[in-house]
Amino acid sequence: MPADGAEPVVVPADLWERPEMHVALTNRDIGHLFRLVRQYAGVSQTRIGVAVGFSQGKVSEYMKGKAQVTALDVFERIAEGLGMPDRARMMLGLAPRILTGTALPRTPIPPGDGTPASGLLSVEQVVIGSHQPDDACDVDVLTLAWIVGRLDEHMDRRTMLLIAAGLTAESAASITNPWERLTLALSGSRADQEDTVERLEARTVGFHRLEEVMPARSLYQGLTAHLNELSTLLHAGLPDRLRRRLAATTGEAAVLASWIAWEIKQPSQSAAFDRIAALAARESGHPIIQACAYAYRSYATRGGPALQNIRLAQQYLPAEGDNATRAWLLAREAEELAGLGDRQALTLLEQAREAYGDARPHRERAWTRFLDPGRMAAYRLSTYVNLGDEQRVIDEGQTALNALSHETDHKKIAAVHADIAAAQLRIGDLNEGITSGRLALETAQRTESRWAFQQLAGVEKALTGKRDPSARELLAAINSAHRSLSQSPV
């Protein structure tokens, strides 16, 4: 007869749906969780300990409230040991193991498992040399993110398309494979481990870069697979220095996953990724990850609530350094403050300009790659729009468009055209306003970005009530596009 501790723990499926279990998971109260498992699964502390890798005494400490779990890898170990389903994992602040009906293995994911490049390139009808998008080879998003993340220079959309089109199956196989390196890291030397961590860091940077040039839905599954690989490696017994680096890149990936989940209207998963980011920020010793998380959240609201998120983000900034994140938050604060009619926004714009002058966006953080002269110009423009300075908007609008490369992502361009259109309509320049509004709508539709569509709110407001047939036609087209976006499958 086997010893009590050798018997596996089988948690009844309905236990994960009980209200008290939801409370325990949401509060990350592992002691409460263990008590519920013991009560409803009828298992001893010893069996729980064997399942999750604790001694019986440690399980007892958690159940009595004498100890608390704070480390991300320990939460992951508990979830795995108890066979926690995805809904429960997300309540606990962990990434799901199954996405869109496809199981994500804990072992390294081989090339070809992500979204094919052919699917990505067909988002836009772009011809690269003699290649049509439909002829593009099968390169997954994970490989593409890794390659893109190693680039030192700015990456625009055309660069990404050329890389994807050039990665044939044969040439991709000749590259030192990051997933093979992950396998080595789980059983190899410290040199193998360090090399793997560097590759995963590069891939996180790559995902942040790809977010600027690809629709959110094309990145989501690959990014979540990436997070699961990071979680797997956190179990590998790495030296503390590498664990902290890996936790930091997990946080950088999680804040992006939260933003993308919001873009594709998956609020519960967005919140789950936010919790992962918070845990990773604490474990890595990089609280600025929380600054990025709150900054992203500010885009989901307007006015006072947005300002609250921005100011919470600023609390996580270090006293010195990280000037790109500082410039971003100052520009966002100016934008939202201007929306409340506060001309203090102009002072903040100047502070943002000074911080940006001292920044190195392509070197500081994975998320700061997006901040370039074009984006800073767009923030200035938006601030003038919100202050109601229409003439300044018209003057600054062309400056902002000139600062943007039309080979980069179109989200910024959509926002700039929307701001210009709103200002033109307000000062009575109907024909030019409608032309700019159409450009904004067309560009937003190409991005499939929820944020880009939000920027059309000012155009909608300015068009409402106008009797001109062209104005009414544009307003109807914007409303129709909003409906199509809300109904589009993830």
Order of helices and strands: HHHHHHEEHHHHHHHHHHHHHHHHHHHHH
Distance between the termini: 50 Å
What's the average pLDDT? 78
Question: How would you describe the shape?
Answer: elongated
Beta content comes to under 5%
Low-confidence stretches: 98-139, 168-179
CA radius of gyration is 24 Å
Q: How many strand segments?
A: 2
Give the neighbour order of strands across the main sheet.
1-2
Report the major sheet: 2 strands, antiparallel
Distinct helical segment count: 27
Q: Approximately how much helix is present in the residues? A: 55-70%
Classification by helices and strands:
mainly alpha
Description:
This protein has 490 residues and is an all-alpha fold. The protein is 67% helix and 1% strand. The protein contains 27 helices and 2 strands. The chain has a two-stranded antiparallel ribbon. Strand 1 and strand 2 (102-103) form a beta hairpin. Helix 11 runs antiparallel to helix 12, helix 17 (303-314) packs antiparallel against helix 18 (323-339) and helix 19 (344-357) packs antiparallel against helix 21. The N and C termini lie far apart (50 Å).
Please name the defining characteristics of this protein.
490 residues; two-stranded antiparallel ribbon; elongated; 1% strand
Write the topology of this structure.
Elements: H1 19-26, H2 30-41, H3 45-52, H4 56-63, H5 72-81, H6 86-92, E1 98-99, E2 102-103, H7 117-121, H8 141-149, H9 157-166, H10 169-174, H11 178-187, H12 190-211, H13 216-233, H14 240-263, H15 267-284, H16 288-298, H17 303-314, H18 323-339, H19 344-357, H20 361-364, H21 373-386, H22 390-403, H23 411-426, H24 430-447, H25 450-454, H26 457-463, H27 469-487
Helix pairs in contact: 1-2, 1-6, 2-4, 3-4, 3-5, 6-15, 8-12, 11-12, 12-13, 12-14, 13-14, 14-15, 14-16, 15-16, 16-17, 17-18, 18-19, 18-21, 19-21, 21-22, 21-23, 22-23, 23-24, 23-26, 24-27
